[in-house]
Design the sequence.
């Protein structure tokens, strides 16, 4: 999973203009799905942390939102991140509308958000686009002809993530905002919330 972080660092979401940034996104989506699938294979039965909570604790993990008016509880959800000196310089949280175990082709639609603070620290607090230069949110639909992408890099739409807790045990918070495709069509995301362990796959 650390390889993902190092690879993605060269493609910081706000380092280039919007047009050039979006060229890398299909590559990111393929990498993200591949790594989640690999994580799933190694983590089945392991989506709970040591701490005595067991299966009951695992039930409390979730990633959900209302996307375009549709309430969705996401599957195959993962929280990744890392940084120097035990800081959170990068985090990504995302999942899919159905389990990756279903092996559907094309894959299910997905939603994720990503925050970068190279040299800084991502802690408890509120983060919003476009003010937060190292932040991007994406909604994507896989089709036989390619990936349709709505994100926060096409325009100055506001997408807000409020982190209530973050540690090596996990992350908890809420999110909402707007994502848009290249044609200018917007999708509203509301009532987003998450409570996830670190580096463990939830609801595979």
Sequence:
């Amino acid at each position: 999973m650390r390889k993902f972080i190092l690879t993605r660092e060269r493609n910081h979401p706000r380092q280039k203009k919007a047009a050039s940034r979006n060229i890398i996104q299909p590559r990111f989506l393929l990498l993200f799905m591949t790594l989640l699938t690999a994580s799933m294979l190694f983590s089945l039965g392991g989506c709970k942390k040591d701490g005595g909570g067991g299966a009951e604790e695992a039930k409390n993990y979730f990633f959900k939102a209302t996307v375009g008016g549709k309430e969705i509880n996401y599957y195959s959800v993962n929280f990744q991140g890392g940084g120097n000196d035990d800081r959170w310089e990068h985090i990504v949280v995302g999942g899919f509308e159905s389990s990756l175990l279903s092996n559907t082709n094309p894959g299910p639609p997905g939603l994720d958000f990503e925050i970068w603070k190279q040299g800084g620290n991502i802690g408890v607090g509120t983060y919003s686009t476009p003010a937060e230069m190292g932040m991007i949110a994406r909604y994507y639909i896989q089709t036989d002809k390619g990936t349709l992408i709505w994100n926060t890099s096409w325009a100055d739409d506001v997408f807000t993530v409020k982190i209530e807790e973050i540690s090596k045990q996990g992350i908890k918070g809420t999110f909402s905002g707007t994502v848009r495709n290249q044609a200018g069509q917007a999708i509203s995301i509301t009532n987003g919330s998450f409570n996830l362990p670190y580096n463990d796959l939830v609801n595979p």
